[in-house]
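Design a sequence for this backbone.
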């Protein structure tokens, strides 16, 4: 995603995202994970959610943008960060949970399927995923990026291959019902 390899675009994103975070999503995930569990955040961006995840978990941040990683490292030099593609997930580490907040919506259907399989590979037994998406169908263009909206039936079908669905809920980020999250546990 070359859009976020530009410092100007990263600054613009940070300004646009002010006032938004995944606090409510992290609260949901916290109901299923013990304190100190290992959590990988995919697409950490400026690191707001990573900061919140780090309060109770051993959180690792990842992004495909070195600009976002450098931005966060300036604030927290000791942070555990990975330059990681959310599709290929090229790491040999394992985790108790994988989390993303409006990141995987940038993946096509085929890329998302590859990512879901890779996430199952990286997860410990009885581990969880929690991901949020914009709700709907079809693809939209935003600032030169493709955003793939997702709905319940699509997410249920794609995640059910590797995961037991625990929760699939719509919620409000900017407008009532504009977002959806999936919480799922890795199948044994």
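Sequence:
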């Amino acid at each position: 995603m070359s859009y976020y390899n530009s410092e100007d675009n990263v600054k613009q994103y940070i300004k646009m995202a002010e006032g938004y975070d995944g606090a409510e999503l992290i609260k949901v995930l916290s109901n299923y994970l013990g304190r100190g569990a290992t959590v990988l955040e995919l697409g950490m961006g400026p690191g707001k959610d990573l900061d919140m995840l780090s309060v109770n978990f051993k959180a690792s941040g990842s992004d495909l943008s070195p600009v976002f990683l450098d931005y966060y490292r300036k604030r927290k030099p000791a942070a555990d960060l990975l330059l990681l593609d959310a599709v290929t997930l090229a790491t040999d580490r394992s985790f108790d949970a994988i989390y993303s907040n409006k990141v995987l919506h940038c993946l096509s259907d085929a890329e998302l399927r590859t990512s879901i399989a890779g996430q199952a590979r990286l997860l410990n037994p009885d581990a969880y995923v929690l991901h949020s998406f914009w709700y709907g169908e079809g693809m939209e263009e935003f600032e030169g990026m493709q955003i793939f909206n997702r709905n319940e039936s699509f997410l249920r079908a794609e995640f059910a291959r590797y995961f037991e669905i625990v929760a699939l809920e719509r919620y409000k980020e900017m407008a009532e019902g504009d977002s959806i999250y999936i919480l799922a546990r890795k199948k044994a």
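The chain has a mean pLDDT of 93.
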